[in-house]
Amino acid sequence: MNTVAVDINGITVRRDVPARMHLGDYVREEARQTGTHLGCEHGVCGACTVLVDGQPVRSCITFAVACDGHQVTTVEGYDADPVMALLRPAFTRHHALQCGYCTPGMLTTARDIVLRLPDADEARVRLELSGNLCRCTGYMGIVAAIRDVLDQCRGNAHPAITALREAAAAGSACASAAMRKAFVPFEAGDTGAVAAAPAREAAPAGAAAAAAPEADARDGGTRIRGGFDVPYDADAVWHFMADLPAVAGCLPGAELTEHNGERVKGRVAIKFGPMSASFNGAARLERNEAERSAVLRGAGQDTLSNSRATGDVSFRVLAGAAGGARVEVDLLYSLQGPLAQFSRSGLVKDFVGRLIAEFGKNVTRRMDPKRAPGEALPPARLNAFALGWSVLWSRIRGLFGGGGR
Asked: How far, in Å, CA of 107 to CA of 87, rounded?
């Protein structure tokens, strides 16, 4: 626990809180300023944006301990603000809000635009708003409201706002040493709180595929482990797993569009309830023959939501019982964009676990020695309804003591 004292809307709030508590939770739970809304909790949607020492900050990815001794302004603290005195009626006048969930963060960003970019045109306003998502308005009213206020502030029409602009410009030119100390960006390889720990020894050449995936972990990544059994010899299974087109044919929803050695391009289509995605991307395979292990590293973009995904699929083929094989799968992935809000969902993890099991069944079918030589099997199809129902049913059974998955 850490003692944190933050000036929130002019009132000092001092609490003992966990080191990893986010500012958004501190503001809502400790200061009871619930006008700050938490949406994606990945720093993507912008709904949680507040001011820290006058600068817009995503409160869902800012630690409360980093704000000790600083000033935080939420939507409840703008009553005396001259910019907000113009923005609020402009939002009403131009119908710039509907459900209102994004509005606290949207107003904070709008205030920053008015102060920092007095000559912004529509294109620049839209660019600056790209970090704040609204699922209701279509943004037309929001852009119109901000431009309305910019027009009202031409010249020195509002001396109080002119003074705030000058102060903001001075603050941008010379950020305080305290702020620089509090908000230090992470560098690649930064281990944060465990910086004093001894560095790992370099892995020997050719060992990348067998190394633990933690070595390639990304901030905010989600990890899912699974596996499946195949009733065939481990060497035969390993040989099959080296055939990327064959492997792709076993993965529900996957389709290869280009194959060049250990590199592939293709798409993966997923649908689960209201979540639908079709990722187009590329990947490369890194193999370790001695360990019968490999890592498929890839990245892609969803054409429906413009979300981006990067991930590593590590797998290892082990000798199993009765002459069979066990394939262990370790998936580490990271999502950016609208779909990021689903990436840590327990249902999604269960869903991926079922996909791994379905993949294993398809591998067994395709390796069946009774299959006629040259017989082509159709690509594995994703039965989203069946898979989704099996996940939900296992959850229901668990709630009523009906056993595991």
From this structure: 7
